[in-house]
Specification:
With 425 residues, the chain is of the alpha/beta class. The protein is built from 16 helices and 13 strands. α7 links the parallel β5 and β6. InterPro entries: Glyco_trans_4-like_N.
Length: 425
């Protein structure tokens, strides 16, 4: 008989973006390991990104439970539709660029909705799920955050029913980069830390996506912590033709602080020094781009070389990954982001295109790229080595074409990762 597991998640198709992929894929493969997943989601959620194509990937026959949720961002739209949508996507303007309304919205978000704007869903969810769990004889629940308010659902269900509970952290809680931008009072900051510690010390097991987060959480709890990264899945065949231009493509959101000015300077210098490079080069930005990044590109005289595509469906993003000459991965240059492993990294890795990544020293991303031979990793202080690497790729592009020689990718397949999860269950 299959083991029933209740998965409590906010992001689920038609939600777009990276947050939905992790548990959509786990749910796809869990039945192959004798686990029956039951998914609990909001009924009327206000997703910042929507990708209707992902609904076709929901496995048939899966039990999906829904309960209404009150979304504060709907109310915020009455004041400023643009600001509420931008902040809900995680694109927070630099302090000096924030309007008074944006500063007010961030203060309200950080201090009146702890741990996040979905906290109002906790109480009705606990009431509904308490009855469902007992009726259906479910022995194990999984909560996944962010939003970390979903862990409070797990916390209360654990205290009520003494059920086995696994808390999955796709991102850290109080050390994630945007947390500092929420204009928290001292009381609010302490409240976040208290809730984080309570969750970490009450759950039966913690799941994280990086070694850095594991090390961080081990300072807060003695509960067992397992690293299960994100990964890649078998994608349906897509029709594409390699870009004729020497394209460098970034897929995903480019936040204000995710702005590698050293890279823009390198590209501008190569354009000025080499007429052929100037004629061949194109920077494709596929996803939301902050005004801060746009201004930096303009300042570096790169605007004429930028193809700003905007948000596309997951299937369309796969096409961009496969047809681009090089793939760009950028993370904020901060100790707080050492633990961040973007979900798109793993899809980049199987696209057969080399990766140029920029991020902080000590990042888990750096280790994975070097281990799998899927590209080159640079720090924000690098300049000469970054320029030389791009030139080497450009020479390869002009001659026999750019090649990629990845190794050891199999352990990052979604099925292999789901097998690791099934062992915890």
């Amino acid at each position: 008989m299959s083991k029933k597991v209740l998965i409590i998640t906010y992001y689920w198709p038609p939600a777009g973006g990276p947050g939905v992929q992790r548990w959509l894929k786990f749910v796809k493969y869990l039945p192959q390991f004798d686990v029956e997943p039951i998914v609990y989601i909001p009924e009327n959620s206000n997703y910042p990104l929507v990708d209707d194509s992902l609904e076709s990937e929901i496995p048939k026959g899966i039990t999906i439970l829904k309960q209404p949720i009150k979304e504060p961002y709907r109310l915020a739209k009455l004041f400023s539709k643009k600001s509420s949508k931008t902040i809900s996507k995680g694109i927070i303007p630099e302090e000096k660029e924030q309007s008074l309304l944006e500063k007010f919205m961030l203060f309200v978000r950080g201090n009146f909705f702890i741990p996040d704007a979905r906290v109002g869903w906790v109480k009705p969810s606990v009431k509904f799920l308490s009855e469902y769990i007992q009726t259906e004889n479910i022995e194990t629940i999984i909560t996944t955050g962010p939003p970390h308010s979903l862990h409070l659902i797990g916390l209360q269900l654990k205290n009520r029913l003494n059920i086995k509970w696994l808390a999955d952290f796709r991102d850290p809680w109080t050390t994630i980069g945007y947390h500092k931008a929420l204009k928290l009072t001292k009381w609010s900051a302490n409240k976040h830390k208290l809730l984080e510690k309570r969750v970490l010390n009450t759950a039966d097991r913690i799941i994280v996506t990086s070694e850095v987060t594991k090390n961080e959480f081990e300072e807060l709890t003695n509960k067992p912590i397992e690293v299960i990264t994100n990964g890649y899945d078998d994608e349906s065949t897509v029709d594409f033709q390699m870009d004729e231009k020497f394209t460098l493509a970034h897929i995903g959101s480019l936040l204000s602080k995710r702005n590698p000015e050293n890279l823009w300077e390198v590209l501008a210098e190569l354009i000025n020094e080499d007429a052929d490079f100037s004629k061949d080069f194109q920077l494709n930005l596929v996803g939301a781009v902050s005004e801060n990044v746009k201004n930096s590109l303009k300042k570096s005289t790169l605007s004429d070389y930028v193809n700003e595509v905007g948000y596309v469906s997951h299937k369309e993003s796969i096409v961009f990954q496969k047809k681009s000459q090089l793939l760009l991965l950028i993370e904020i240059d901060s100790e707080d982001t050492q633990c961040i492993i973007p979900g798109k990294l793993f899809e980049y890795m199987i696209s057969n295109r080399p990766i140029i990544a920029l991020g902080p020293n000590g990042s888990d991303v750096e280790k994975i790229i070097k281990e799998t031979n899927t590209g080159q990793y640079f720090y924000y202080s690098d300049y000469g080595s970054l320029k030389n690497t791009i030139l080497q790729y450009y020479d390869a592009y002009k001659n026999k074409g750019i090649q990629s020689y990845p190794i050891g990718l199999q352990k990052y397949h979604r099925k292999a990762l789901t097998q690791s999860l099934s062992k915890l269950l």
